[in-house]
């Protein structure tokens, strides 16, 4: 058994009104984790060592965190929480609502009817299938290492998909500029079925490959655990995050098909975020597995 004192950190709240409190954790210092402390306190909040700002991961043992028996942890009230699964569902549902509205009701948004080109048909189908796939993965494939996040973050996280991938992309590609009678489309490669089929084939390969990498990651983590293991095979032998690589290539295909500034902005922003996440994942893999982790690039084979 290990004894832990919980005190308040940061702003005062109703959560901290009864602090400090002393908890007895029915496990040894070398096996008791931060999650055990949270369970004993019955709160999903940020825990830190006293006078430190960095939060402690749930699976960190108290011993590895540098805690001593009878020591003190500080808890910070992060406010209302929401599950990561719910956040993902909300993020991806935005484009699934916005794109059909702009595609099927052009008079509302452009002031007149739009005779859709073959390119617009293809892009619409690709966008809808992509985000339906993301919703499917969120519900049936992904296993989340973190259960919740602050509710306020959902607005920040959704902005990329709702504003750039939803409003921005949809308004641009379903506009009269890309209609069947537009000089930007008529008689160009963007009106050539062979070009569109070739792009679709590459895009479909990327989507299926992205799904496969997500399934590989899912199978590394048994149900009900936060266990991590080194992923191998299908892209993982080249980079740490092939799921991001396939995602990027799929969206670059859409950019090349349309030439739309909106699609490039959405894709470039996504590359920035995915690159940031990829570097963090790569560092965590190397830190956790040390010399066992094979040499591989971060996100883009042979380059980065």
From TrEMBL:
<keyword id="KW-0443">Lipid metabolism</keyword>
<dbReference type="GO" id="GO:0042761">
    <property type="term" value="P:very long-chain fatty acid biosynthetic process"/>
</dbReference>
<feature type="transmembrane region" description="Helical">
    <location>
        <begin position="260"/>
        <end position="279"/>
    </location>
</feature>
<dbReference type="InterPro" id="IPR001104">
    <property type="entry name" value="3-oxo-5_a-steroid_4-DH_C"/>
</dbReference>
<dbReference type="GO" id="GO:0016020">
    <property type="term" value="C:membrane"/>
</dbReference>
<keyword id="KW-0560">Oxidoreductase</keyword>
<keyword id="KW-0812">Transmembrane</keyword>
<keyword id="KW-0444">Lipid biosynthesis</keyword>
<dbReference type="InterPro" id="IPR039357">
    <property type="entry name" value="SRD5A/TECR"/>
</dbReference>
<feature type="domain" description="3-oxo-5-alpha-steroid 4-dehydrogenase C-terminal">
    <location>
        <begin position="148"/>
        <end position="304"/>
    </location>
</feature>
<keyword id="KW-0472">Membrane</keyword>
<dbReference type="Pfam" id="PF02544">
    <property type="entry name" value="Steroid_dh"/>
</dbReference>
<comment type="similarity">
    <text>Belongs to the steroid 5-alpha reductase family.</text>
</comment>
<dbReference type="GO" id="GO:0016627">
    <property type="term" value="F:oxidoreductase activity, acting on the CH-CH group of donors"/>
</dbReference>
<protein>
    <recommendedName>
        <fullName>3-oxo-5-alpha-steroid 4-dehydrogenase C-terminal domain-containing protein</fullName>
    </recommendedName>
</protein>
<keyword id="KW-1133">Transmembrane helix</keyword>
